[in-house]
Design brief:
Blueprint: H1 2-17, E1 22-28, H2 35-41, E2 49-55, E3 61-65, E4 82-85, H3 88-96, E5 100-104, H4 112-119, E6 123-126, H5 128-135, H6 140-163, H7 170-183, E7 193-196, E8 199-202, E9 212-216, E10 218-220, E11 226-228, E12 233-234, H8 238-257, H9 264-277, E13 281-282, E14 287-289, E15 296-300, E16 313-316, E17 319-321, E18 328-330, E19 333-337, E20 342-344
Parallel strand pairs: 1-5, 3-4, 5-6
Antiparallel strand pairs: 1-2, 2-3, 7-8, 7-9, 9-12, 10-11, 13-17, 14-15, 14-16, 16-19, 17-18, 19-20
Helix pairs in contact: 1-5, 3-4, 6-7, 8-9
């Protein structure tokens, strides 16, 4: 409860700063989008969706659609006021009429029917960036959860590596890792893929792995904090070997660049330099804050002037793509920001295994 009160206090301080009367935090069962509700309530969505209402003054409420009474373990919620209603948007509109409300998930998560009811009653303000900034600095309790997730992810990588062999299907190779993730408490909070060429694909039985394999492993452990750790496997081409040189430069640079006070833009420029100088395209975002939602702000990218702070956690994964678009290198690490630089939490050698 102390941790939850800390989180709510950070959200309320941001609401007051931005001249808002309340926040609505949206979450759905879509993988990676349920975590914001977990962050402010402790509740994990298993089915449908939910909202958490946090007023500047007063107690929070968690709101569920009554068409699916069971949407998770309701006893896990740290919020005592739990409402089951036919139309959550209409219920919220009655309580927020005339108010100015920051909404996390306005563009991607809130249902159309709830938006229609709410927007007619209150001024809705997109508040994704501001909410994420309010939760970007992790507490000691959160960092403990992050480290547990990292340990699970690393063990899952080794399970994937042990199963990998050219000619095996992606499903065969990913299965031991997914089994481990479920046994270690990740539940449904996994999003694991492989790259074929430069494209991400699900680990299906129709995908046969070759002499070189690039897995993408993303999991959240029992504490609900997402992490990303992976390494490429097998025999790289000459082109990919050149990409590895740039990866080695990025990894060394990040250890000094990811320090408190640096901007996300400066970090992006520093870690991407080795790739762009070699003429590679950068595909997926260079890096992003990561927590109970898989991808959070700030992103490590061009023009993002947000200052990093001690105990922020970032997933870093430069996506180097060859000029012809046919080859790539993509390896993931979860980094902790300190006063003096970045600390990679996995402890895995940066190499092609």
């Amino acid at each position: 409860m102390d941790e939850m009160r800390r989180r709510h206090a950070n959200v309320r301080a941001a609401l007051a700063r931005d001249g808002l009367d309340a926040a609505i935090v949206c979450g759905s069962e879509y993988t990676g989008f349920e975590g914001a509700v977990t962050y402010v309530s402790g509740f994990t969505i298993v089915h449908r969706y939910a909202y958490v209402l946090i007023p500047v003054d007063g107690d929070p409420t968690i709101v569920f659609p009554s068409e699916a009474r069971y949407v998770g373990e309701h006893g896990d919620s740290a919020i005592a006021d739990q409402q089951f209603v036919d139309r959550p948007g209409a219920w919220l509109a009655d309580r927020l009429r005339g108010k100015r409300v920051g909404v996390y998930g306005l563009d991607y998560v809130m249902t159309v029917r709830d938006y229609a009811a709410l927007s007619a009653a209150a001024e809705l303000v997109g508040w994704d960036v501001e909410f994420d900034h309010a939760r970007a600095v992790k507490s000691d309790a959160e960092l403990e959860s992050v480290r547990e997730s990292v340990a699970i992810n690393v063990d899952g990588f080794h399970a994937f590596r042990a199963a990998y062999a050219p000619g095996r299907t992606a499903a065969e190779v990913m299965a031991p890792a997914e089994k481990l993730f479920v046994e270690r408490g990740c539940g449904r909070l996994t999003m694991n893929m492989v790259l074929v060429g430069a494209e991400f694909t699900l680990a299906r039985s129709g995908t046969t792995l070759g002499e070189f394999c690039v897995p993408s492993l993303e999991v959240a452990g029992p504490g609900g904090h997402w992490v990303e750790v992976s390494r490429a496997l097998g025999a790289p081409s000459a082109e990919v070997s050149r990409m590895l040189e740039a990866y080695e430069e990025y990894y060394d640079t990040a250890k000094s660049a990811l320090h408190a006070g640096a901007t996300a833009h400066d970090v992006h420029r520093a870690v991407s330099k080795g790739f762009t100088e070699r003429g590679y395209h950068l595909g997926h975002v260079t890096g992003h804050s990561i927590g109970m939602t898989m991808i959070e702000f700030p992103k490590i990218g061009e023009g993002v002037e947000t200052e990093l702070a001690k105990n922020m956690v970032f997933s870093m994964h430069p996506h180097a793509i060859s000029a012809d678009g046919r080859q790539c290198l993509y390896m993931q690490d979860t980094w902790l920001v300190t006063e003096n630089g970045g600390v990679p939490l996995a402890g895995l050698d940066l190499r092609i295994w």
